[in-house]
Structure formats: C-alpha cells, structure tokens
Fold these 2 entries.
Entry 1:
Amino acid sequence: MHTLILKGEDALKTGAGLIAAGEVVAFPTETVYGLGADAFNGEAVKKIFAAKGRPSDNPLIVHVADAESVKALVDGIPFGARLVMDKFMPGPLTVIMKKSDKVPESVTAGLDTVGIRMPSHPVARAFIKACGTPIAAPSANRSTHISPTSAEHVFEDMDGRIPLIIDGGDCEVGIESTIIDMSTDVPTILRPGAITAEMFAGVLGAVKTFSGKVVVAKAPGMKYKHYAPSCDTAVALTVESAKKAYDEAERNGLSPVIVASSGFCNKLDGRTHIDVGASDADICRNIYAALHRAEKIAGFIICEHFGDKGVCGSVMNRVMKSAGGKTV
Ligand code: TXA
Ligand code: MG
C-alpha cells in the first residue's frame, strides 16, 4: 500500500472519503498523532489493530468534535463527568464512561466503558467534522514504539501500512491525553497527562491517582510495553550519574546520547546531547521528538529525570516506561 501525506483541504476531503470507505487515516491532535477509523464500523476499527500490531484486548479512545456527539456513545453522562468535560474539553483529556450499545466491541475490547476525547487541534476537529462520525483512534505508532508528534514520525512507523497521513505539523502538548475514569464512584486518573490531578481538584472533590498496584490493570494498555525506543534507555537521577553512564557506554563502544533540559545540557562538557528546552511545557512538547531522534543517532539513550511535579510527573510516567524502569 502506498502511504500519502497530505495537508489542508485536500487532506480533509481525501481523509473523510477513506473513513467513509472503511479505511484508516492518521491525523494530528494537540497531544500526539492518532490512527483513526469510523468508531461505528467494527471492521474498519479492526484495521487499526492490524496496522499497529496492537493486541485486541487494548481498547481505543473515541474522538468527537462536539458535545452533542457524545450522547450516542455513552449510557448517560454522570454529573462529575459533565463538570470535567465542561472545564477541560476540548483539550488533552479522555473521560471514561459507561458505553452505549452502539459502540462496537472491537473499540472497547469488550469492556462496558468507553473513553471519550474531544481534541482541541483545529485539523483534528475539522477532520472529525468532515467524517461526520466519531473517530476511534489510538496513537499512530507501531505497538510498543514511541508515540508520534509529527507526520514524519507516523510515516516512519506506518509507511506502506496505511493509505493516508494528514499532516498538521508538530503536536503542541507532546504526550498523550490524561485519562480519567468517571464510571466509578471516586474518579480515578488512569494515565497522567497535561491535565494534572491538581487541576481536577478545583472541579471535583476527590480524585484518586492510579497507583499501578492493582492486579487487573484498569486501563488495559498499561500492562503492555510502551514508548520504547529501538535502543536501550536509562533515566539519570543527576548530572554526575548521566556523565558517568555516558562515559561508560562510550568505553563499551556504544554511541550514547543524553536527552535533557537546557540547564542540565549546559553541564555536560561537550558530551552529545539533545536539549528539550527549559520550561515544563517545552519538555513535554519535545520529549517524544527527542527520543525519536536519539534512537536514530545513538546506541544508548540517557534521559534526565525531570522530576515528579505537575506535567513533568506525566512526562516521567512515559520516560520510565521507555527505560523499562532503569535508572543510573
Ligand atoms: O492523546 C491521546 O489520548 C491519543 C490521541 C490520539 O488522542 N490517543 C492515545 O490512544 O493515546 P492509545 O490507544 O495509545 O492509548 C489509550 C489508552 C490505552 O492504554 C487504553 O488501554 C486506554 O487508553 N483505554 C481506552 N479505553 C479505555 C476504557 N474504556 N477503559 C480503560 N482504559 C481505556
Ligand atoms: Mg499509544
């Protein structure tokens, strides 16, 4: 299959035509690129799993362009969910609610809940509107690889596997949406993101943060390997330990690279590095692009520990998985 990359009106028209024909299309959102199909077409949705190599027990998020479209997808909207949606949608948030009968099993992997997301990215919104149907979409990477934040990243993973990539430039947020489960009595954050637990506190009374310690993973995707670059990766707790690990890797014949914030990079005495910027928002926006570049130029990636507070905590949730939990 030939994979086209298109921009603008042309891309939207071609994309909507492919979705209507039961095909899959990659499209930009403010978080990461998604790989979409008509959420009401179970057969089309199966093509997403095939293109990604994704296990079929890992459910997909359903993307809508407006609040009206949510009604057909869920079995009522709980009061708390309504508050959260009013405050944070459109934006980098996915809300889990009880599903309606209309949502095919292939979307929710047999669960009785569905994840709903209303992206703020203008191209995502225009695309969903042009399709005239909700769009089921995971991130547009091959299963286990780093999520894509540009059309080029999608092409590297999906060339020959999907018919179209809609190019909307680089993603602004840079990591996947926060997932909050509103189908239970106490809302629970299943995946941290740019919308943090502190931000929910102003809207909801109590929010549980997922500890990762339950036996049955609540977001089924969490049990799988995730965000893995093609080479070994480790997280450095200090500048000194990053330099030490770098020098050791070099002695072992690996070409190492350090992915870090600007202040950290300034202290590396000429060692090869990728600077992800100074602010929390910069780090979040640039982290996946940095990991994509790092795996191309290096045999070993050392990534700074950016801290546990706010959005950096969400970034570290991903980076720790990239590193398989390894620290230096
Ligand atoms: O920002 C995002 O959320 C991106 C863009 C494309 O919207 N999408 C994304 O999808 O990250 P994906 O499939 O890569 O991650 C979705 C996660 C998976 O871990 C999945 O298990 C979980 O959401 N999930 C989906 N539906 C769920 C449900 N009903 N209950 C619990 N977890 C669910
Ligand atoms: Mg993903």
Note: Confidence is low (pLDDT under 50) at residues 212-217.
Entry 2:
Amino acid sequence: MADGCNGHPHFFVHSNDGGEMNRRSLLASAGWIALGYPIRRLSAFVPTPRFSDYPFAVGVASGDPTSNGVVLWTRLMPDAHRMQDWQRETVQVDWAVATDEGMKRIVRRGRESAHPEYGHSIHVEVRGLQQNRWYWYQFRAGSESSPVGRTRTAPASSADSIRFAFASCQRFHEGFYTAYQHMADEDIDLVVFLGDYIYETGGVGPRTVPLNEPMTLGGYRDRYALYRTDEHLREAHRLFPWIITWDDHEVENNYAGIFPESNVSQADFLKRRAAAYQAHYEWMPLPKACIPNGPNSRLYRRLSYGSLASFFVLDGRQHRSDQACGGGTKVPCEESRNGQRTMLGSQQENWLTGEFKRARSRWNIMANQVRMTAVDARAGPGETYSMDQWAGYEPARRRFVGNLVDHRVSNPVVITGDIHSNWVGDLKVDYGAPAGRIVGTEFVGTSITTGGDGAASIPSVETYLSETPQIHFFNAQRGYVRCEVTSGAMTADFRVLQRVSVKESPITTRASFIVENGRPGAHRR
Ligand code: FE
Ligand code: CA
C-alpha cells in the first residue's frame, strides 16, 4: 500500500500559518465571549479534531478540469452514533497533489476550512498544474488521511484525443451500480454526468430507499449520503474528474424553474429547491462559482479541452418556463409555440450566444438534460411530443439549433440523459422538411440503473421509430456511453449491461457510431 494511504506523510507537516489562523480566531473568540455569546456560537477552528468514525468514508472526488487545475472534493462525515464536538465547528483540512500515486512527489499543497454550514465539505480549486496529465491527491484532517484520488487536467492547446464516458439517472433502489464497476476499467480521461444523480423518490427493489421524500437540507444530505455508500460510485469519483450538471430529480420530478410539480406554494417550493441545491453543491466536486445563493445557482459553464473540444454545460431545469399544455406527452397546443417560453432562460441563452460567437474548438459538446431531437411519439397520422423535452419548447429549440447554424459552430454534438434509453438523433432546425439540413448529432445515453434491467427494444417505441428518419438507433438497456474525440472524428460506443438487478453482470458494446469532422450526421460503424 502506498505510504499516503495509512501513514502520515511528511508533506502534511506545516509551517505556522495554521497557528496564525488559530491565534486570530482566539482573539475573535475573546470578543464574542465578552459580548456574552455562548461558546457554541464561536465556530472556532479545531486544529486537531478527534474522530470516532473514519471521517473520509464517503471518499474523494475531483471535477471541472482546466489546463492548469482542477477542483478537489471531500466531505467529513459525522459519527453515526453521537454528535462529536468538531461537528459544530470549522475544521482545518490539509490537501496535497502529487505526480505519483504514492504521494511522494508533491507539487501543490494547502489548507482549507471545512464549515459546518456546508456539511464540512471541501472544494479546493487547485491551480498551477501542468496541462493534460494525471495527478494524485489526498486530504488529511486530525490524524486521519483520505483515500488517494486520481485526476487529470485538460489540454491547453492541441491534443491527440480525449476519451470520456457520459452517464445519467441512477435511481438507487432499482439496481446495482455495475455500470460504474465497468467504467472504472475504461481508458477514459473524464466522466460527464447529465443529471438525476439522486432521486427524491424511494422504493423497494434490489436495494431499498425510504419512501419519505427529502424536503429539507438534512433530508437531501442524507439522500446523497445513502447513494454514496455505493463502492462503485465512490470509485468512479476517485479515479476520474467529473463534469456535472443536474436535471429534475436532484430536487423534484418534472419541476420547471420556479414551478413545482407537487401541489405546494411557490415559496415553499423555493425553500425546498434551495435545500436541494445546497446539498448538491456540498456533495459534488463543483467550483466555488457554483455555490448556491438561496434557491439560485449558476451551474451553466464552459470547460475548454484546448483546440480539440469544448464542453458547454447546460442547465435546462433552473431557468425554464413551466411545461406547456399541462405537461405529459401531448398534441402541441398554442402555448408550446409561444416564443416567450424558454428552456435555458435569457441570461443563459445570451451567454451561450456569446460563447458560440467565440467558439474555436473543433468539437463543441453540449452537456444537456432532456432530448433535443424532436420525436413524434404517435404512430401514423397526428403528432404528440413530450412537453418536458426540447420539443415542448419548440421556439427555444429552434433558437438553440439556429444559433449553431448562424455562428457556424464547428461539429456540434449534444449529449443527453433523462429518458433511460440510448438514442442517436439528427439535430435539425426544421424536421418538417424531409431534406432539411443536418446541423449536428445528439447522443442520448441510457441510465445507470433507473428503469431496472431494461430491454434491447420496447414495442411501443418501435411503433413510431419507423416513421422517425432522424433517429438512427434505439436501445433501452442500462449502462453508459463511451466517447473518443480526435481531430478527424468523434465516436460513441453504447456500453450496455445484461442486468442491474443482480450484482455481477458483463458489459458489451451494443452499437458504435461515428461523426466525421466537417460532415454533420452520425453513421453506424
Ligand atoms: Fe431519470
Ligand atoms: Ca405521428
């Protein structure tokens, strides 16, 4: 075992800058005591917290790589049986980044405060690293050391290739996270997660989740803690940096912006949304720019992978208009054609237009929530569309795809989750014109577990697929999508499991598609 895992490596010995912090907080404490505040309000630093349970049991994670840095994450978990003194206070956590797994060749180190107000989570924004290479990292609090995590920076300029997997929808009680067990063996640089990291709903299945839905910060924190008890999920976080966005279930099924799905007041819903957003931030390796301000959080952002690729991370939940026509799958009503309605909100749309104007990367990948390819779900005459998807926000969908055309965005590829099935679709401004120009490709990836074992095919879907020329592939097994981007092409391998209802299951590539540089449209390999 590496020294860093069990010993107390030399790199954690500090100069007295921590002592300076303690002296200052003691002075502050004296002032508060003079004012008669009880000692528990002081939030004093705890230089040597004593843990009765291993505080790093939920593991480590990293995210949002740049060409010179990355976000490092951990969270000190409280004792399961009784409140410890440190849980009410700010705890100092040391971190180190090395170029070797044994944590011998340290290149960056520092100290960060874990605050009780943020559940003792740590989000370190490391800078000063070299581009496009692997690093290892570790945390220490008191006499305890975290597992050693691995992460990778993004390329600054050109790179031969980028490999990544994208995933979504991991309802805990519906199956085992075997997909992550296999993902850990993949030769990939990063993971992109497209939403439904937790589900607010519980149930009984291969694993059991309590039925009462989280409504408070404590409730959402507990739900993430339950999900993170899965060793394969923890390992996927430990091995790769993740780029993360959310969809609806991180708060509530099918919520839309400020509009709840449940029958509660908007004020009560926004309190719930604030609690859910904070718990999400606390548990994810997100940069500090994503810290929520009450019920608001700026999650949309761009991550550059040099001249080869950019990832545009979209937030299609927080800022959207309510679903049109009462939601569900409907014949489009007048409301769905209202140009005032929005999926991303005007601020995000303006940001995106600015980014598209400046876009210089060869591949432009959009990390997106719900399906953008319009699919008529009624076989034969007449048309119905899901009002939760981009087709239910038709003018916004046209603006988005039209923007890609207007700004000649190079090789746009949308990656999507949400519907627990694999799809390959053509992005077009106008699907009504049979010869309409293909603007880009959408790869919709299946769920990690949601929906249970799944099937290669679903008869009700097959009835309308033959009438849907913009769809080139459909499959409803569980798994993830593995992608490779080079200057010449982007490939997507749909990796599927036999079952998720049992712990062990082999994974296979069900289909592979390729998009060639400068030639819009995906082709089966
Ligand atoms: Fe889902
Ligand atoms: Ca039809």
Note: Residues 1-43 have pLDDT under 50 and may be disordered.
